[in-house]
Amino acid sequence: MTPVFGEFIGPAGAYVAAAVSFRGELPYSAQCGVVRQLDRLVATMTHYLTDLPLPDDLDPARKPQRDTGSRATPSRLALDRAARSLHPAAAGAAEAGDGDTHPVVRHLATAADYLAAGRDLLQTHFTDGPAGLPTPTSYWAPVIASAPVTDALLSELAGYMQNLAAWIAKMPTTRRVSPGVPTSALLALRRAEPWLQLAAASIQAPHRDRYPSAGRGLLDAIPVNAPPPRPLPSADESIAELCERIPVTAERLRHAALAFATRARWSPSATSLSWRRDALASAITGHASELVLRALAERAGQAGLEPAFGARLRTAADHMARAWTSWRDVTGQWDVVTTGSPRGVGLTPVAAEIGELALRAGRLAYSNPHWTPNCGDAAVVRDPVDLARAEGDVIRVLAAVHQAADAISRVAATDQEAVIAAAAENRVHCRYACCLINTTFPGPTRSRRGCTPTPS
Amino acid sequence: MSEPGASGIEARLKHAASLPETLAAGFDAFEVIRTAARDCHDRVPELFAAFMTVADAAVDGREALTLAPSLPLAGGVDPNDAVSAGADVGQVADALMALADVLGERLSRAAALSDLPGDRVACQDAAQAAGRIRQLMARADP
Questions:
Q1: Interface confidence (ipTM) of the complex
Q2: By CB count within 10 A, which of A237, A397, A442, B22 is most buried?
Q3: pLDDT in tens, A360-374
């Protein structure tokens, strides 16, 4: 399973809540431990706030609609002041590690660990651009920078700050001081408390809970930007397994498409062979997906689901039909358009794997679990009841088709850019225009092996 | 059973007396296969993927042969070489499988007899493409 942000932010909040539920008097060594861990927490939350406005810089058009940056700035300044109170005391208490075993310190330490790991996860979706600006490296990057998600994240962090400040404020004022050790820990906490309070208030005041549920759901669902392990096709994959693995293959393709896009201009494998393979697999996947959508529409009617749902499935099938016929036509164009065929350059990562999407889509559509494009494996379309026995199966199969279609559209976008770039560099040629039979591709008369650059 | 339309190009392959003739006939055979597959891919939904993939493999084979130094520059497919568009899809599949069989065998033989490494590699790659076409068009045993 791909780790998601919710697996980090959820426990972080739970451990902060566990820490602040302690109502007793902390021994001095534990106070020192609290200072150290709070210093870590404040530093990590400051990093989060520092990260937040940066994605907005990528999209100036959205700036007028957003106030995340302005909300984060006073909070960040307040956290900076809190850190100035905590950090010297934390540095001074670094040697006094006796209190680290206290439950409160352990809870805060674990919360800081989760929070830091969550930030690392978010950072995988960006890289430093030429001018130091963050450059998105995933399709999730715009989601992370979106208003609902940043608001959800700010609300979460503000909640931590608020809880920690309120807890510090209620700490007993009596101190047990070990002989010879400075009594700076509690004082440092006291000095940090109003700044934490201010940091929380400056986030929460303007638009508290503006996007309460949708943003939080998206925030929790943000995956680490790394391709999931490749699920190699195996014999006898059940429908449930196909529905589970198609999204994984789709995610791998999306990841590979975006990762390769940055090097498409100079990579030797950015050739018509790879683009032709992508178009072929997209056509087959789309063709199979149309069959699946029509079967689902029929099944929705049989199962007595909302008529509007069935109608939408039929509309989706019609759209899918238009998509795969376009892909079919694209493959026809690649019959006569080429970048040349240098031997041994291999395929792009997408082209090397996209056939697995077509294979699984075919196995979902047809009744043969061992389906392949071979004539010998041809089979009739699956019975709708076989495809989706229960109502929930309709949604699962539909989700798989959606994932496949989304991956294809992402691959199409990156391939289109790569082809345009190749054409601009005169790397795309119309071959064999005169000697092919039954081709309508226009072109001047040429010898068999001659090439005519295509119009850019 | 007669195989509609494939005999012309098959005969050219079988009677090719030199490497350039084999390469030219092979090139044209891949074109015949590609065109026939394109004609058939929309006729039976269950065979859409098969014919689409065959067309793709035919382009692979043809592209491989263009790298052969001994491929003649001039020439082209004779309209009589084409597989009959009116034939039953199953018959077309059989015809393409048979043609791919001959094509693969001739190209493998040409590869073995080639003096130039470029010709040999081109024939080997094209023979592989012919093998894929044969596999794609082979129908299940009744």
A1: 0.92
A2: B22
A3: 999 999 999 999 999
